[in-house]
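fold-stage: in
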Amino acid sequence: MTKAVIPAAGLGTRFLPATKAMPKEMLPVVDKPAIQYVVEEAVASGLDDILMIIGRNKNALANHFDRVTELEMALAQKGDHARLQRVNHPNALADIHFVRQGDPKGLGHAVLRARKHVGGESFAVLLGDDLIDERDELLTTMIEQSETRGATVIALMEVEAESIHLYGCAAVESTDDPHVVKVTGLVEKPSVADAPSNLAIIGRYVLRPEIFDVLETTPPGKGGEIQLTDALQVLAADDAIAGGVYGVVFSGRRYDTGDRLDYIKAIVQLALTRDDLGPELEPWIQALALKLPGRADAVRGDR
């Protein structure tokens, strides 16, 4: 498996007005755009042929992964080789291609736009709102499980019951591996009462090419969009189509950059892991916490 698909056609309305002229995928997380973290994850998992599904006004994505000769020359003339290396890094990561989604008909429709590029191969789908910490294993495990079981594999994560309505949710059965489950059903953003579990689908999928035939006949679901979850439900209900659906239950570090508050948390958490930022940032955060109204006593108590 060498191909990854990254849907990046969303409007980013939760971050307006910042995303009025800038794609949400280009919002910086510390000093890299969110989309670069996703591409780096795909490449680290052996996927170096990447297709981005984009919409209008997303030219900044292509520009970021292209050469910028004027900037490179300016940095080289200054002898700033460290920044020059960081500037060149994105355009050397992988073979990156772009295709327009056209009509905003949902995630399932975006994945379907990848059919000609993917062909008859299995492939991964990575959503740009979910960043997986590079120190934690997920996508490589999913690829291995897909190849071993000959099946579609999705990433699952336990969430609080009251939050399950924000996600697709999986009904599951145990397997011979405590970290892998057999998916027997999927529901898109169920109510707490209707949720079959507290296992939420997060933004990583390893799909077999049979998904395209299913998506072709999947009617619009919630929001009038073609939902990838609905197509996966078809595969989960009939193992004969493409070997069924399995889930890898992820318990590592995940950063949600699709929500404003979680986006801020992601920046702080990732900055704290950096050798060049963490040592100065951590004591500043601790000092700030002591100054917060109603928080000082609690912080002192924790100590």
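fold-stage: in (second)
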Amino acid sequence: MMNRFAATLAGGAALALSATAAFAQSTTVPGEQVGLAAGAPLPEGIYAVDTFTYRRTDQPFSPDTSVNVPFLLWSTPLTPLGGRIEALVAQPTVFAFTRNAAGQGNKDISINVGTLLAGIWAFDLGGHVGVSFLGGVHLNDLDAGRGSLFTGAFAPNPRVPGGLSPVGTPVLPQFSSNTYRFGVAGSYTGDGWDITANLTANIYDSPGRFGGLVGSAIGPLRLSDALNIDLTATKKFGNFEIGPVAYGTYNFDISSFSAAAGNRGRFAIGGLIGYDFKAFTVQAYVARDVVTGATYTNALGRTRDNYSTDGWVRFIIPLYTPPAAAPVVAPLVRKG
């Protein structure tokens, strides 16, 4: 019984620590905005978008991770100074799926990310060029998953979460603080092109803290602010869309005391395909790291770069667009 419990404890701690390493980056997932002409103002209406990514690292038996980001965007009729106001609400969720070898405990987890509330101010500069500015906040302090992985060390049944053992926590240290998100994007959308560069900054209240008894045991966490870049250069041929994409993240604080210790960030390159079904649009893209600050030690004790491969799928659904204004009919005048 003790051997089984020890294996469960070790498996849980390994999952938590590996998931932490896999997401030693901004709350905004790099690549999340690839394929969106974020700089161009949207026509007035309400849009639903869901973006899902599945990620696997080169490190053997490290967990696969995924993030689902559904959001609603209201492109309002308000255009102060010529820029359209857009309101956005999103509720992301993070998942981790273990790949432990036989004989080791396996556990899949999901963690709620703080609801994102954001506003966008988007301008059409003419010549199919647009620029937008975003400001928002992930309410991690209010409703994000705490990221604590209980082992049940003091519970009657070790399979039941409980007790005060914080082994392997926090899974996602960046959730110990609200994430203040700021972005600027520029897009060219002429002749079927989507050429977009999108910069996103994530700012934290550092040091961050989790609440409750486990949070007290963990103590304060030093968090690194981060900067993401998402790049798109796709072309539409009829209803089809295809082209290269790239994205990356840069962590500013990689000191030994930071949650991003030793990991400056990553940069990935890939390709996107999409199809416009008129009622909705589907996009899929795959990217592979070409630069990474993540490392792991193999069975021979050698340190290796821990590259990642990401697969993505997105659905874009216009829910409502206002009816077009009826044309004004000129009166027919006859001369007698």
